[in-house]
């Protein structure tokens, strides 16, 4: 089982469950949802989510995704990150873990 991680707020996840799928502003503006590998989470939290409360980690099973995902290079982090090019279907999320 191959998994990737997406960080969001508990409120955004609850809204996604009501809609039946998860999407966010980056999907609408950039064309993909930013995700990470587990090893990348500490630096992602430090760079983008400092002092934010109510965060959750969505553990996404890639084999269950209805949308394609690709690893893209990030110049700012000098690493490749998984990006989901479409909404994340709810049944692809196998765990929701509190952050912090």
Task: Describe the protein in words.
The protein is α+β, with helices and mostly antiparallel strands. The chain has one domain (3-98): Protein of unknown function DUF952 (ADP-ribosylation fold, Alpha-Beta Barrel), CATH 3.20.170. It is 24% helix and 38% strand. It has helices at residues 10-19, 25-30, 41-48, and strands at residues 3-9, 21-22, 33-34, 55-61, 69-74, 79-84, 88-89, 93-98. A 3-stranded antiparallel sheet has the order 1-4-8.
List the helices and strands and how they pair.
Layout: E1 3-9, H1 10-19, E2 21-22, H2 25-30, E3 33-34, H3 41-48, E4 55-61, E5 69-74, E6 79-84, E7 88-89, E8 93-98
Antiparallel strand pairs: 1-4, 2-7, 3-6, 4-8, 5-6
Are there runs of 5+ residues with pLDDT below 50, and where?
none
Q: Give the assembly state of these chains.
A: single chain
- Rounded to an integer in angstroms, the radius of gyration calculated over CA atoms is 13 Å
**Number of DSSP helical runs:** 3
Looking at the structure, what is the overall shape? globular
The SS-based structural class is alpha+beta
Let me know the number of strands: 8
Kindly report how far apart the N and C termini lie: 25 Å
% residues in beta strands: 35-45%
Summary of the model, kept short:
24% of the residues lie in helices and 38% in strands. With 100 residues, it is an alpha+beta fold.
């Amino acid at each position: 089982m191959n998994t990737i991680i997406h960080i969001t707020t508990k409120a955004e996840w609850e809204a996604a469950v009501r809609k039946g799928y998860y999407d966010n502003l980056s999907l609408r503006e950039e064309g993909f949802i930013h995700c990470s590998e587990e090893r990348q989470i500490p630096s992602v939290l430090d760079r983008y989510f400092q002092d934010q409360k109510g965060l959750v980690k969505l553990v996404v099973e890639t084999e269950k995704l209805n949308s394609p995902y690709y690893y893209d290079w990030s110049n700012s982090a000098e690493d490749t990150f998984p990006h989901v090019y479409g909404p994340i279907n709810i049944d692809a999320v196998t765990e929701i873990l509190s952050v912090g």
